[in-house]
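FIELD: query
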Amino acid sequence: MTIAQIRPETRCAWCGPAVLVLDNQGRAGREPLTGFYFRETRYLSELRLQINGNDPFPCSVAQAEPHALELSYIYPPVETRGGGGSGSGGSGSKEGILFRGIDFDLRYHVHPGSIEGVLRITSRWDERVEFDLAWSVAADFAGLDEAQGAEREQEAPVHAHPQPNGVRLRYTHEKLPLETNVRVQDAAEWTFTGGKLSARLALERQQTREIRLRIRAVDSEDPLGPEDEERREACVRAWQDRVAHLFAPAETPLVEIANQAARELGSMALLEGEEDEWLTPSAGFPLYPATFGRDALTAGWQAAVMDRGALIRDTLSRVRRLQGARVDEWRDEEPGRIIQQARRAPTSRLGKNPFDRYYGDFASPLMFIIGLGQLYAWSGERRDVEENWDAARRILDWARDYGDRDGDGYLEYLTQSEKGPRHQGWKDSDNAMVHADGRQAEPPIAACEIQGYYYASLQFMAALSVAMGEPENARALWNQARELKERFNRDFWLHDEGYVALGLDRDRQPLRVLTSNAGQCLTTGIVSDEHLPRLVRRLFQPDLFSGWGLRTLSTQNPAYNPLSYHLGTVWAVENGTILFGLRRFGFDDRALELARSLYDLSRLWQGARIPECVGGYPRDERAHPGAYPRANAPQAWNRSTFAILVQTLLGIRPVAALDLLAIDPVLPYWLPEVTLKRLRVGGATVSLRFWRDADGRSHHEVLEKEGTLHIVRQPPVDSLTAGIWDRLGALLEGVVPGR
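FIELD: result
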């Protein structure tokens, strides 16, 4: 099987806002992106181990854990190989040292605001050996975008201040009080000169010496010390100890992929802000170690099956505290609006762009309410609703007062900020919205999926109003949702195509374009039941379904490009959401087909890390779809996709407020048996075994249960294919003793 990776020239490790990017030889400084970053700022632009002024020979570079890189070297390398293969020619010497006479094992452990390096050096020669060991270090304090080649918008001299066994690299920018502290812990005396921190070392035969290097990023405006780091890392460990776990009796790659994805998603916690915000997922590494509203909210609700909503709870706390309070066109801020992104890069801190707190996105506010509804479904805790209730109501006020620009009942976006994106729907790239002939569509635009999110938000708020003891408000919201659905199916449904229009353009005419956005409308429930069979059939025609997933744009559109960000690529996270919708409405065969596509796609990539988005090339034409140029991996919401995939296959639907768990497994042949351990719903914990019999039917049994939880087997409430006998049969199976 083909195995590919993004940025094969680099390796990356991270912890919270800290990221270490090295090249394939374990160095920073040669490749543009390499370096040590903290809060999107490069605190080390060079980090390079040297022996006698030379680079050691790299034997291997590995990401041992999300937060650690392990490097193996020898010195000196064989300069001329013999004819007997790579092991030949090793009997000579250089600089008085036998070829391959010294080996070096170096581990960089990334903490939330620092790096701990542990270097173990062992002499394999039969004589005493002496050599100069050094780390070359330098800092430029460039932002992530600047480091990748963008023009420097902020720059100042960096002054080096030698310290005992170390150096302070201080940025002299008057508005950015930043510095990097580098210190060696070793018996030898280390000095800093000429950009190198060095010492003269000696080893006897088979002697091993351990040297420790500590690199700390210092942001005087918001410092992060060792105790702060430990508390944050303990928070992640506690989350990982409680996360649900999959088990299969035989080798089942999906089980390991899903477990690994869950673990890695936890490692992507941003660890910034107040303690109840720490688990908010970063968007991804190495390019997006920051808060992106819809990314974090989507990853959080999709992963709730694994952690009872812990990630989404912290995400709600973080974005709630950044909720819009005023009208500010520079930031596209409006009262009640939820952030699109909150960055800490130097250019954002200096106000050269609005992205330190930017609101130009119509998805994030509505995803907040959807995330709150999902959290309550899993936790059943009224407190979760109470803490976010005012923010949720302010979002609906924003939708009414600012989102619906012309009073037609739809939400239309129009960017006000000169630095903001042109489009503010799910597809937010500048060329994402097109007409049927491929021409660019001009805002204001009422994007179809935004109306779907709005509909789902109104329904969730109605249900939450009941929980809050506000029945009149619930009734009004249900009616508002019903009216929106009626209008939507009148104005957005393309009868001749059997599909949903991409949006309504500035003239309120439908964009007659076939896109994946319609699949999101399916999931939200805004499409009338009568239209769903045609919509699903059309989704899976070859122009939209590539074999790896649903394309963002049909190949029939003149603007189609398989490697354009939103004009032909395949997004795993979007397909995960659509997969959830297919099962919700009873299209089980199509759900299994899409699940298999995502599963197969994950196995093409190193570590099952599906990139941000992959090429839309047909599966039957290419063995590998490729990836969008400069795509990011890992991406948080692509890791959460496997949680929602598992939840969908097992048909898990929690109602924690009623101590109820509904299940309806539909296992494919490639997942004949799986056990879900430590699933938490409300105050209960349960372990469930699922299996598929020889006739293709799926079954379940309860292995363990702590706390009060009623487990019933029932097809989804909205399923169009489950009749009364299906529901009765499922219910009877659920009450069989031991089940």
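FIELD: remark
Residues 382-403 form the longest helix (22 residues).
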